[in-house]
Amino acid sequence: MNWAIFPSGNSEAGQSCADAWSKAGWLVAVLIDDDQPSVTCDRLFIETNYRGTGAAFNRMMAEIDYTICACVNDDMFPAGCDAPVAYYSMLNQFGAPCGVVQPVGKYFDGNAHAATSPIIGRDYVTAFGPAWDERFYHLWGDARLKDLAVKRHRFYESPTLGIEHRHHTQKFADTLPPAKRAANNAQHKADRELYERLSGIA
Predict the structure, then answer these.
(1) How many CB atoms are located within 10 Å of the residue 94 CB?
(2) How far is CA 198 from the centre of its chain?
(3) Is 2 helix (H, G, I), strand (E, B) or coil?
(4) Starting from the edge strand earliest in sequence, which strands make up the sheet with 68-71, in order?
(5) Most CB atoms closer than 10 Å: which of 16, 145, 178, 197?
(6) What is the residue-wise DSSP string for 110-125?
(7) Are 5 and 60 in contact (CB under 8 A)?
(8) Is 45 exposed, middle or buried (0-12, 13-18, 19+ CB in 10 A)?
(9) Residue 190: pLDDT above 80?
(10) How far is CA 189 from the centre of its chain?
(11) Average pLDDT, stretch 8-25?
(12) pTM (2 decimals)?
């Protein structure tokens, strides 16, 4: 089964994103904060103590039955990333759902150092354990995930799969409430320092 999963701090944004991934042939799981209204999707998770995207993704992936899992955010929309196409891209590259595929098609936002919207195969998680390092809150966890997948020869950037990232830095409205955006941004410095230590950069 092919799932698209994401955490959302804004149920309205989450619903719009869930609908788009569902139309592209994915089952959809959404994790929302307990202060948010419900989202209609295939599996809803409620979080009382949000610890970041990595912890959210690991929790969802541990509790759903998936073959491949697109790990996105509520401002990321499929653009040539239908579920069957993504599944065969994984199989064509690795022979099994045992890798990390990063769509870099039409709308890729250029974060070449990180897998910001990876599609992860079940066999990859079975072989190597949970995909996300939960010490990271957000972006630098994406970088850590990519580094490890590259080291394991299990990373592929697909130019034929596309995801449109409607990020607030690209002149889209910021759908994350200000307090949650501030908490997110506050983690970046600490996360980068941890990433540099683990990577031997510091």
Answers:
(1) 19
(2) 21
(3) strand
(4) 43-47, 27-33, 2-8, 68-71, 119-121, 100-103, 155-158
(5) 145
(6) --TTS-SS-EEEHHHH
(7) yes
(8) middle
(9) yes
(10) 20
(11) 96
(12) 0.91
Confidence of residue 65 (pLDDT cuts 50, 70, 90): very high
* CA-based torsion, 65, 71, 72, 78: positive or negative: negative
Measured CA distances, 48 to 101, 140, 143 (Å): 30, 23, 26
Q: Is 60 helix (H, G, I), strand (E, B) or coil?
A: helix
**Residue whose tokens read 């320092």:** 193
Cα–Cα distance, 109 to 104 (Å, whole number): 8
Joined together, the tokens standing for residue 91 give 């199989």
Cβ neighbors of 198 (< 8 A, separation 6 or more) are 144
Q: How far, in Å, CA of 147 to CA of 2, rounded?
A: 24
State the first-to-last Cα distance of the chain, in angstroms, to the nearest integer: 41
Amino acid letter, 162: G
Enter the DSSP assignment of 169: G
Cα separation, 170 vs 111, whole angstroms: 13
What is residue 173's three-state secondary structure? coil
For the chain, the residue count is 202
- Which residue is it, tokens 């990271």? 136
Q: 2-199 — its CATH code?
A: 3.90.550.10
